[in-house]
Design a protein that fits this description.
homodimer, alpha/beta, Ubiquitin-like (UB roll), Nucleotidyltransferase, domain 5, six-stranded mixed β-sheet, 17 helices, 23% strand
Chain lengths: 678, 678
């Protein structure tokens, strides 16, 4: 320990907790500056004017021989009127404003988390990664020289000079949409304003006086579902989340029918473009309203989507994505003005589009990679993002392969008789009793399991309106486990005799999942033979794509599987494995996450360096064209059947009656995942 | 002379005429490259592909001992098929394509003007300055690798790579509005396209195949008149010019009433803004249609205007310009997307706004300075730009003073009984017979003078609809010269008895300028006592402003006077001096130009370095606040009277009967300036 304070009387050791970073600073240095010199960045919007209160610290009193110092409050200059009144006004005790307190002796200082400049948030992804909050935009408070006669400069030049003098910002540009209000805002704030900066380059907004609050939108434009997360860009918190059906569905359910619509209908592309822009504006209105702000508070956005959604959003006809050689218009990331896309955020708001990977692998997949970070692992990771197409990522930090598999939209509830988007009322969980063949189920928007044995009346919010992706996977897996369908996927005529739950329309069987008493439509909800076939085709495509990448990489087993998808509910890893969606892997190491693409968008929204990382990764991953591989068709045909579940789960019989084998991580999001009545 | 060719067999001397630049180049170098090495830039769009034909040169045959070389056609590689077919197709003989011809011996080459990369055009300004054509945009032809399966790059990345490889252009960005058509254009041109670049930084347009033609718009937004010049940005030529009334006039004739309208009316600013944008779009439609192109061919624009027009154009409420300290929102030049202003040019078109000088001295005045270049002269120059306000520039390369004088719109025909904008039918020239007091006149749109003595019937286009700025100045100056008004500006009761041309409405006299037989309205066109007063006030304000600057600079005489103004017709220097608009100066050195502000916009449109020059000059000139100067009011009152013309022009009596004393430069634009019948 350096204890040379007796020799160097003009400098003192300061230790900052919890990082433990330490250094010597000159007597009289304020703590904001001292922390910066020691390498700990404190938050500050007002620039040391003792008004924003962002740089609060705690002075540890007493003698700390372990740290080699003796700290006391009187080792700092005493608080003056402004600092005292700040803390009185906010009812806070025992803290100091770092910008006001000058170092007069040895100090041990604790920097509370909220005062750290680059806050850390946990990414809501499988890997529980920590994301440093370092967004593309920030706010600074600045005091401008008032206009006087004889100074020909405009208000913008005066503001510009003040930003250079007070914050060292040079050569800033200003968005043309800021000009119309600049003079009014400066006068309203008596020439004190808060400026929102983009990448330390461009001024996006000027607000009167001291102002706090920057918000951004992370958006995943899926073929079926569009999800938007409103984030506080200072704290990193998700303020509100909303999802909506992609209204393009009315012009074609899968991607190729939309490509065809855009190409053949005279106004097709314009309609598809307007539909998605309209929905984005609508979602922006909803999340901001939920967060108590307005759409004009959105100052930055990150958008991901598959290649067709990406192109349509930009007004690019996706015709080339529908025919060989599947040429993208561009694959680079884009920095745009939101208004140039027709997005009604702040008039000067920015929008970032993550890069694409190849003709069939889009920015949504880049988002998934950002969120799950297989490129930062040693383990071989398989990440499957199940949407209208399935994107498959396989590998680790050495090499990452990516492919797209044409699963179709069955996993999203489309092409299923009673399928629906994940929304309140949709069945998301299913358990079938092996003896009675009766199903218990749970719908989105209600925490209780509904069982035909229940005597109590069913609350209206528990009534089923249909079945969504996670529900259909569980239902069919359970049907297989209890023997309603056999390994070929055929609804077994024998099962009909035992329970009356299976009935026939001509030669095709169907399973009555929900009786009409529990159905919001008044008609029973059934799983038909065609529904089973649709899921078989989808899962075979997914499995074949995975096997192709594994063969390409020369491996037979993966260490970890991440199941991603904007399903409303996480996929059950157990049922996914029963159905054969994914290759063999210890069930403990199979993790289901929700909308990983949206999480990736959120990560890129919160951290600017993740946008650069995204571009590097997008260019580094190796794209494997699945339809080109001769083995794909063979694997596809081989994967149509259902696997022998007992091979995978030798103790299945013991597991089933007790419900799912739980994994803390799998069940992270929903607590009540077991049927309540059992 | 270096005649070392015998020693250095692998290099030869090449002389390029008419510049006379010379240098040695290696054997086999093509002439395009050779010229570049010698420092003469030849035009090329196709980048040496022998297709654009822009780099044509003439090989001088024979022995040229004066130049120290012996040139002959066989000192160049013979033309091959593509070059031969190019010249055959275009019916050209005796020329070579520089990009195809390789140097094999000593050469004397003439570079025709059209092949020089930076063409020179004469600025249509008083100084006859030469402007080098070096605009902010240029076109390059590029051949792109077609898309193939296995290449994940997008078309944009392939185009980008081709631009780097073939033209050395790195780090280009591309306007988001280009994406929607990129793939179609590339395929239409079979992956050969012509790219329009802005400042070597951004791609504004991609056209299929080889394409030629870049156009820009230079605009002067005056309070009363908006003028637009469509320019060919490759040749520098003005393709078409159109002017229109500023429709904001309906919301207030002078600037202060528009400021008031914008401030007090709820939708005032939006209306004013839409009015000017609408007119700019309308003018763009007219000039492009006259030039045989469309609005989307406009890819760059430079706009000038006074400070109020500038702010309204940007959607900025001009309220601060109407009250002390007259703070501008900004005074820096601006580079914007035309679409962000609502301008319907090419979707990606750029717009540049020249800088402002001070609260009352706008970009129009910067345009005037660019056009007349007083900052490049040794002589003391006075430049007066007469619009709704008059801007006055005084000085030379040592120092330049600038002021704005509140003349009001009388010089533009407003506030005058039969005043009108300069448009067909407006009287622009007037001569009054000192004996009969009858006037001859000429209207815009007709080259003949109309005289009451004429026996022939008057053609319809010669009928007068009203009187415009240059007409009113001449009319009142002539009225003074022949004694209809006295030095106080009073219509002289005595003059009524002699001719019957002066009549009274109550106690106020009026002069009948045009009898009803020659008036398109069917009523006589008169100059009233109030009209004379309005002009007196305006000219006194102008003169007082000039005197203030002269006093400030400590001079009593100026060497040269430039009278600028968008009047439709040039002001007659003689009549301006008779009225006392300008201080004493040899009439030979008084020059009238038209819309110098618009000329300045055109110069900045054609030459990018002139935009930087404009910014430097705008910051360098010294602004003098006229209303602040105590002496201004004194000078104003003193200048209300008309000067004694005979003091200035002792031989006036001999001049008048013979018409105007002519000056070649003053009369440059219009040839028939004397009354034809005399």
């Amino acid at each position: 320990m350096d204890r040379s304070k007796d020799i160097q009387n003009d400098s003192y050791q300061v230790i900052l907790m919890p990082s433990g970073r330490r250094g010597r600073v000159k007597r009289g240095t304020d703590l904001l500056q001292a922390a910066a010199e020691i390498g700990v960045e404190l938050e500050s919007i007002c620039g040391g004017r003792q008004t924003c209160g962002k740089c609060q610290v705690i002075v540890e009193n007493g003698h700390f021989p372990k740290h080699g110092i003796s700290s006391a409050a009187d080792h700092l200059s005493p608080p003056k009127e402004q600092e005292i009144s700040y803390f009185q006004e906010h009812g806070i005790r025992g803290r100091r404003l770092a910008c006001a307190a000058e170092v007069l002796g040895e100090l041990l200082i604790t920097v509370p988390e909220e005062s750290q400049a680059r806050k850390q948030v946990i990414a809501k992804a499988a890997s529980d990664r920590v994301i440093e909050v370092d967004p593309a935009v920030r706010q600074v408070y600045v005091e401008v020289e008032p206009a006087i006669l004889g100074d020909p400069r405009g208000d913008w030049e005066r503001l510009s000079a003040a930003l250079e003098k007070q914050w060292g910002l040079r050569g800033l540009s200003i968005d043309s949409q800021v000009f119309p209000h600049l003079q009014e805002v400066l006068r309203e704030g008596e020439f004190k304003v808060t400026v929102t900066l983009w990448q330390e380059k461009e001024i996006l907004r000027v607000q009167p006086g001291y102002s706090e609050g920057i918000f951004g939108l992370a958006v995943d434009v899926g073929s079926t579902t569009i999800a938007a997360h409103l984030c506080d860009l200072r704290t990193g918190e998700v303020v509100a989340t909303q999802a909506a059906m992609n209204p393009q569905v009315r012009y074609g359910e899968d991607l190729m029918s939309r490509v065809s619509y855009a190409t053949t209908e005279p106004q097709g592309l314009a309609r598809l473009n307007r539909a998605v822009i309209h929905t984005l504006n609508d979602l922006a209105g909803k999340v901001t309203s939920a967060g108590g702000i307005t759409k004009t508070d959105i100052i930055d956005a990150v958008i991901v989507g598959n290649t067709v959604m990406h192109h349509i959003l930009l007004g690019i006809n996706p015709v080339e994505l529908g025919r060989a050689p599947f040429a993208l218009a561009l694959f680079s990331p884009l920095d745009l003005k939101a208004r140039d896309l027709g997005l009604g955020f702040n008039p000067a708001a920015r929008t970032h589009l993550l890069p694409l990977i190849a003709g069939h692998v889009g920015a949504d997949n880049v988002g998934v990679i950002l969120a799950e970070a297989p490129h930062e692992q040693d383990e071989i990771m398989l990440v499957v993002d199940v949407g209208t197409n399935a994107e498959i990522v396989l590998g680790n930090r050495q090499q990452l392969l990516v492919a797209s598999s044409p699963t179709g939209p069955a996993f999203e509830g489309a092409q299923i008789t009673h399928g629906q988007r994940a929304a309140p009322g949709a069945i998301e969980r299913v358990r079938i009793d092996p003896k009675t063949l009766q199903a218990q189920f749970r719908v989105i928007g209600c925490d209780s399991w509904i069982s035909p044995d229940d005597k109590e009346p069913v609350p209206p919010e528990a009534m089923a309106t249909g079945i969504c992706g996670s529900g259909i996977i569980e239902a069919i897996a359970e049907m297989f486990l209890v023997g309603i369908i056999n390994a070929n996927g055929l609804i077994d005529p024998d099962s009909s005799s035992t329970s009356g739950r299976v009935r026939y329309q001509g030669r095709a069987g169907e399973y009555v999942l929900v009786d009409k008493e529990y159905s919001a439509t008044g008609s029973p909800i059934v799983i038909t033979q065609n529904d089973v076939r649709a899921i078989q085709l989808a899962k075979a495509a997914l499995y074949a794509g995975t096997k192709l990448l594994m063969a390409n990489r020369g491996i037979e087993r993966v260490d970890r599987v991440v199941l991603a998808g904007a399903f409303g509910s996480y996929i059950s890893p157990f049922h996914a494995m029963v159905l054969g969606l994914i290759p063999d892997c210890d069930l403990e190491n199979v993790v289901a996450v929700g909308n990983a693409a949206g999480d990736g968008a959120r990560i890129a929204l919160l951290n600017i360096s993740q946008r650069q990382k995204a571009e590097q990764v997008a260019r580094w991953v190796q794209y494997v064209e699945t339809p080109l591989a001769a083995s794909f068709q063979d694997e596809f045909v081989a994967a149509l059947n259902l696997p022998h579940a007992s091979d995978k789960f030798p103790h299945l019989e013991q597991i089933i009656p007790n419900g799912l084998p739980t994994s803390a991580r799998t069940e992270r999001r929903r607590k009540k995942d077991r049927p309540g009545g059992r």
